[in-house]
Design a protein that fits this description.
Layout (H helix, E strand, L loop, with lengths): L13 H9 L1 H5 L6 H9 L3 H11 L3 H7 L12 H5 L5 H15 L13 E5 L3 H12 L3 E6 L7 H4 L10 H10 L4 E5 L9 H7 L2 E4 L5 E2 L12 E3 H10 L11 E5 L3 H12 L4 E5 L11 H9 L2 E4 L2 E9 L2 E12 L5 E11 L2 E4 L3 E2 L6 E2 L2 E2 L3 E2 L2 E2 L12 E3 L11 H35 L1
Parallel strand pairs: 1-2, 1-4, 2-3, 4-19, 6-13, 7-8, 7-13, 8-9
Antiparallel strand pairs: 5-14, 10-11, 11-12, 15-16, 17-18
Helix pairs in contact: 3-4, 3-7, 4-7, 5-7, 8-15, 12-13
The structure holds flavin-adenine dinucleotide and iron/sulfur cluster (SF4).
Length: 441
């Protein structure tokens, strides 16, 4: 399958062991994988044990090994950096162990004894699938509803193909579903094929992991102009394309945005043959949500990044884009972003909007009324990932205050499942004690 890194050979030195025991890397991993333990197992020739350490905490550890911004997570906290000026390659080792397991065809998990409870999961992305897997292991009957034909969410339809090459996203989905007790309903959208009140009525609990389906606008007139694309939509088409040569690719590409989506679409179009690719971001390098490593990577692949500029006008000829006019920006005395009035133009025959996504909240209604409390345009949840509605949990990109990372979505799903399980057990215990009180009377 994949190119595997060589596992560290032989026993660990004393200083290596001491470093592993300090374990700040575990704190830095949102799913709390016991990194020293899995590395030790690889070092002692036990890749299956290593994979078990990883997948017990993070059932999507194979894709996370490929997409996690490790330099700001686990590897960023690695104690070996101080001693040897570079961290242990945790992501690569995680990939080695999980690929080993998939290649060996070993299933480590099975559904727990039936609890008699049913849980609906909306969205089969990292948050929904992680929740579904943990619930199944806890014995609950899970139904996953996803609007798209395949599960995996952005692992399948969003993240750039060079990060999750081949069939790894679907391989991981298949491994996860093999636990049993998870019924999948693809092509079933909440708000179109099923309703929120219906789910709340028919299931004992509901988890919402619907991600962010909407895209932000540029703030300038861009409707009906040929050559202007939404980056996510284009990546989705590209990820599912059988023949990449059939995809339209410009010669001069301008990408507006500063996150992972901007880096991904810029890299993808460059790989597809665009001659000149420029990312333009309205603030400085430090404010870009794409990590410095990703920015460096893009630049070494011939992509220009321009900062402190925002689009002011699309220049068109016969309704097709030919250039983008930008205005330089700066922070005013109050720290607010403002235009300087100075402008420049970049030639472009293809423009991508990569300026963030928004929650489509329409499906979460009852009788046309929004019944979930929102915060900053996303679903408000507490520390247990419980929403404002009894029996409804949520996690991943669709909730407020998250990090918009695959690994964070996986953790949300896992924590929600644990809390749903505790809630269902508490509810069952209350019913039992009420019944026994009635019997005694
Ligand atoms: C271009 C791009 C690149 C990225 N690169 C990285 C990266 O390199 N590393 C990283 O860690 N993160 C990356 N991310 C972020 C990461 O992909 C997300 O944080 C993660 O996928 C969130 O998982 P989720 O389950 O919350 O949502 P999603 O992955 O969006 O899954 C939501 C699921 O819900 C389904 N759905 C939506 N609405 C409905 C409905 N009404 N009814 C039923 N189903 C519905 C969707 O079909 C989808 O399957 C990237 C994101 C993008 C857009
Ligand atoms: S899941 Fe991501 S952050 Fe956690 S240890 Fe693995 S690569 Fe690092």
């Amino acid at each position: 399958m994949a190119v595997l890194p060589r596992p560290p050979a032989g026993k660990l030195r004393r200083d290596q062991r001491a470093a592993l025991e300090r374990r700040p890397c575990i704190q830095a991993c949102p799913t709390g994988i016991d990194i020293p333990s899995f590395i030790r197992k690889i070092a002692t020739g036990d890749p299956k044990g290593a994979a078990k350490d990883i997948l017990t905490q993070n059932i999507m550890g194979a894709v996370c090994a490929r997409v996690c911004p490790t330099e700001v997570l686990c590897e960023g906290a690695c104690v070996r950096t101080a001693q040897e000026e570079r961290p242990v390659r945790i992501g690569a080792l995680q990939r080695y162990a999980t690929d080993w397991l998939f290649d060996a065809g070993v299933q480590l998990f099975k559904a727990g004894p039936a609890s008699g409870k049913k849980v609906a999961v909306v969205g089969g992305g990292p948050a929904g699938l992680s929740c579904a897997h943990r619930l199944a292991m806890l014995g609950h009957a899970v139904s996953v509803f996803d609007a798209r034909p395949k599960l995996g969410g952005l692992n399948e339809y969003g993240v750039a193909a060079y990060k999750v090459a081949g069939e790894i996203a679907q391989h991981e989905v298949a491994y996860l579903l093999a636990v049993g007790n998870i019924q999948v309903h693809n092509g079933q959208a909440l708000g179109r094929d099923i309703s929120f009140p219906q789910l709340r009525r028919d299931y004992d609990a509901v988890f919402l992991g619907a991600g962010l389906g909407g895209v932000n606008g540029l703030g300038i007139e861009d409707g009906g102009i040929a050559g202007v694309f939404d980056a996510i939509g284009y990546i989705e088409t590209l990820r599912q394309a059988k023949n990449l040569a059939a995809l339209p690719v410009g010669r001069k590409v301008v990408v507006i945005g500063g996150g992972m989506t901007a880096i991904d679409i810029a890299s993808q179009t460059r790989r597809l043959g665009a001659e000149d690719v420029t990312i333009v971001y309205r603030r400085g390098q430090e404010q870009m949500s794409a990590s410095l490593k990703e920015q460096d990577w893009a630049q070494t692949n011939g992509i220009r990044i321009k900062h402190w500029s925002r689009p002011s006008r699309l220049v068109t000829e016969k309704s097709a884009v030919t250039a983008v006019e930008f205005e330089y920006t700066k922070l005013d005395a109050g720290g607010k972003l403002t235009g300087t009035g100075e402008r420049y133009t970049l030639a472009a025959d293809m423009v991508f909007k990569a300026i963030g996504q928004t929650l489509v909240a329409d499906p979460f209604v009852e009788g046309n009324k929004q019944v979930l409390e929102m915060q900053d345009g996303r679903i408000k949840v507490d520390g247990e990932r419980h929403s404002s509605l009894a029996g409804v949990w949520a996690g991943g990109d669709c909730v407020a205050g998250g990090e918009d990372l695959t690994v964070a979505a996986v953790e949300d799903g896992k924590q929600a499942a644990l809390n749903i399980d505790a809630w269902l057990k508490r509810a069952a215990a209350s019913i039992d004690s009420a019944l026994s009180a009635v019997k005694k009377k």
